[in-house]
Amino acid sequence: MTPHLIHIGYAKAGSTILQRWFEAHSQIAFAAGRVLGIRSVYDISRGERPIRGTTRLRVTSDESLATPHPAAGGKLVPRPEAWGLKPHSGADRVCEDLADLFPHAHILIVTRGFRHMMLSGYSQFVRSGGTATFAEMQESFNEDYDTFNVFDYSATIRHYECLFPGRVIFLPFELLRHDSRKFLSVVEEKFGLDHEPLPEMVVNPSLSAVELAWYPRFTSLAERLPLPGRIKNAVLRAHLRTISAGRLRKLAAACQKVRPLTPVTANMVSDAALQEYRCKTSRLRDNPLYRPYASDYLLEFD
Q1: Residue 147: what pLDDT?
Q2: Distance of CA 124 to CAs 15, 77, 82, 225, 275, Å?
Q3: What is the mean pLDDT of residues 187-208?
């Protein structure tokens, strides 16, 4: 039987580039947004499923499995309240559903250090039309119980280990970024795959620190334009496409010269705020691959 790997995310932890690798690898069956690498049941009847002899691994991958929420599979709701969609309330249920559907599957969990997770997540939020400041979003991370617990890496790993004993792999995104061959080798050796490198691509580059400071203000101004409904909606859609592509970089830089705002960087995440997460990473200490990134996860190794 061909083994099945379920990659559950997390968001902003290399999911896009990993999915491109799954899709491009000659020995992996993967279809974005689908299960077991099969696009539909009709693929089987038409004989279009991956050839059994060449497929060594089937992959199901979606980052919303780690952070389930009502907008999964659709567009991110471009409002501050979208950040508080209470994802954690369904995370345990997803784990249990996956165990019921695929009891013999393997699990891949990719984590990311909290400080950069927050910043990268905020960048995506701003691209989607969010108007909250980074300070407001950081407050949401620390005060909202569900958001806080979604990043309880230890609890998530232990829950999956309980239902998928001996079949849970957890790795740091930082390793994927700094040494992709070493990261991929963990999966390749586990499932007997030949090495095939990551495809060359730029994945969801973050906005600059100045853009992150100014884009929410630009969006807020666009939302307040006194225009008729249809025209305003069209203008807002065009605006979102523009900021998503980072095409207002020069305007943000010009505004910064006239009226400087505090650039949004990872250093804005206070050490005091991060201490709340220290108890959420203890399980990661058991994986030596996290040692070089101990500070990112508030870990202390002997």
Answers
A1: 56
A2: 14, 11, 12, 24, 24
A3: 85
In this prediction, residue 194 carries a pLDDT of: 96
In angstroms, the CA 71 to CA 219 distance is 21
Q: How many CB atoms lie within 10 A of CB 222?
A: 19
* pLDDT at 238 > cutoff 80: yes
Burial of residue 194 (number of CB atoms within 10 Å: 0-12, 13-18, 19+): exposed
Are 292 and 112 a contacting pair, CB within 8 Å?
no
Long-range contacts of range 177-182, CB-CB < 8 Å, 24 or more positions apart? 177/14, 178/292, 182/289
Higher pLDDT, 301 or 61: 61
> Which tokens belong to 31?
């279809």
| Chain centroid, CA 274 distance in Å | 19
Q: How many CB atoms within 10 Å of residue 145?
A: 11
Q: How far apart are CA 108 and CA 88, in angstroms?
A: 18
SS3 54: coil
Domains, the chain, in order of start with CATH, read 4-205+270-297 (3.40.50.300), 209-258 (no CATH)
Total-model pTM: 0.84
When comparing pLDDT for 30 and 76, which is higher?
A: 30
